[in-house]
Amino acid sequence: MRLARLMATRPDRVPAASRSASAGDAQLLQAIAAGSEPAFEELRARYRGAVAAVCRAIAGREREDCEQEVFARVWRKAALYDPARGSAAAWLLTLTRRTAINVRAGGLRAPPPIGPEVEQEVETFVASSDLDAFWLDGALTRLSERERTVIELAYFGDLSESAIATRLRVPLGSVKSWKRRGLNRLASLLGEESR
After folding, report:
1. Which of 15, 52, 68, 122 is the most exposed place for a label (fewest CB within 10 A)?
2. Strand, helix or coil at 154?
3. What are the tens digits of pLDDT across the range 27-70?
4. Cβ–Cβ contacts within 10 Å for residue 54, how many?
5. Are 161 and 177 spatial neighbours (Cβ–Cβ below 8 Å)?
6. CB 7 within 8 A of CB 90
7. Could you give the angle at the alpha carbon of 194 between the alpha carbons of 191 and 195, nearest 5°?
């Protein structure tokens, strides 16, 4: 009812082609169902204004998402159009109205299901030490440069504290202090990430 009122008050929003050539619209939907991109573009050009008006009236700020979703659904569902049940224009505007209501409600569409091969890759990644390395690298970047350098030299370079002090040309006490502070901060950061 609201849709009919909207179209009656704004006849400029309903394309002339849809008012006079519904048989042509039905043929376009059949061609779209067969995968014709030119037919899709033609139908989109004919109904862009009407779809925009309905989406604006119902979905409001989400108008652009609504319009994109309507035409995506037309592409996917054109084979469902049955000329015996009504005109192509009615089918399209009903699809538009339902899509706009879904967009307004926040239920645009569910995410596509994840296939078994993606699940396997995720499980492999999570089970591997790559995940631990990822968190460790992230935590190390949050340390001060001195703390990070000392920890990297001690654990990745396998250097003793005195060798690090010699290499960095700093007192041994500074190396010990930076290492202790760095390890404490690292433990705290990794504890945050695991929550």
Report:
1. 122
2. helix
3. 999 999 998 899 999 999 999 988 988 888 888 888 888 899 99
4. 28
5. no
6. no
7. 95
**Tokens 């396998």, residue located:** 158
By the 8 A CB rule, do 151 and 140 touch?
A: yes
Q: Any idea which residue has 């159009």 for tokens?
A: 81
Scanning the chain, the segments in alpha helix (DSSP H) are 2-9, 16-20, 22-33, 37-59, 63-77, 88-104, 116-127, 129-141, 145-151, 161-168, 172-193
User: Quick one: tokens of 70?
Assistant: 């309507």
Q: How far is CA 140 from the centre of its chain?
A: 30
Instruction: Give, as one character, the DSSP assignment of residue 153.
Output: I
- Tokens of residue 60, six digits: 């409001």
Global pTM? 0.46
Alpha-carbon span 194 to 117, nearest angstrom: 26
Length of the chain: 195
Structure tokens at 56: 């604006």
Tell me, what amino acid is at 97? R
- Token pair belonging to 50: 């009407």
pLDDT tens-place string over residues 103-160: 887 755 444 555 566 556 555 555 555 556 667 777 888 888 999 899 989 988 889 9
What is the number of other CB atoms lying within 10 angstroms of the CB of residue 58? Answer: 22
